[in-house]
Amino acid sequence: MELDKTYEILIDPPPPMSWEDYERHVIFEWSNLLNSGNNSDETSLHNFLEKHPCLLPGAFYPQPSGHFPFPGAVISKPPLTGLGKKIPDFMWITSDSGHIYPVLVEIETPAKRWFTNKGVPHSKLTQALDQLTEWKTWFNTTENQALFNKLFQIPDVWLRYRTFHPYYILIYGNRNEFKDNPFISKKRAQLARSDEFHMTFDRLIPLNQSQQFICVSIKCNYYNALSIPPTLKLGPNLADYRSIIKNKESAVIKNDLITRERKEFLLKRIPYWDKWAQSDMKGVIQTSDEE
């Protein structure tokens, strides 16, 4: 029997902000922040990245696989049980047909230096690298992996066929430090250990392929929406993942870049797509359907 669609796509809804306009806005505001007096304030940097997760690398690490990150969002300050106070700044949960890839992101500040004047790795850099080592150690036990899978609600189907392989991203300093010193630049490239990626803050740019992703936190064993981009579109593609995220409507209301008409539309349609995602009869899905 041929399956039918079990959802409706509304025609001509109020449009979201275009990617081109949003990209220009993010680049302008990010540049201002990096060149301001707040560029040494990690909290200001973190808050900006929470609002604009398209700047954060890692949504498709270690390489594009055709799978969206789970749950269609980056996770801010993901708790790793028993690790202590220093938790990752952000985390993507990506996958391919054979692996689950937690991608942990540590941000420092663009004001921190990689090396001393003598060309020795700076003590602050050493501390940041030690954070990555702590997270590697935490993930290197089956007990902690099981805690991770439970807390972050990793889909059962992933656990049956996929193995665990975390990656670690350090965002630190500014590339101007290496502008006139190619030897130090080459030396920096040798610092990244297995499964690590290091980059400077000025390498971060808005990523078109991440424009539909939300920023969330884990709160009392549920995903809580912190921000929703003004480019967000609704449809069947990410509805399953988004349906487990609470308070999406509050995140919509807080975003000043979303027009009043678009906000009203999203507030009406988010519950519709959550209900559809939770139904047992999905029918046929057209991946190009969005509103």
Quick structural overview:
The chain is of the alpha/beta class.
Descriptive account of the structure:
The chain is of the alpha/beta class. The chain has two domains: 1-16 and 234-291, no CATH class; 19-208, Restriction Endonuclease (3-Layer(aba) Sandwich). It is 33% helix and 16% strand. The protein has nine helices and nine strands. It has helices at 19-34, 42-51, 123-139, 142-151, 156-161, 182-189, 239-242, 248-254, 260-277; strands spanning 70-76, 90-95, 99-107, 163-164, 167-171, 196-199, 214-219, 222-227, 245-246. Strands 1, 2, 3, 4, 5, 6, 7, 8 and 9 form a nine-stranded mixed β-sheet that branches. β2 (90-95) and β3 (99-107) form a beta hairpin. α8 runs antiparallel to α9. It is globular and about 65 Å long.
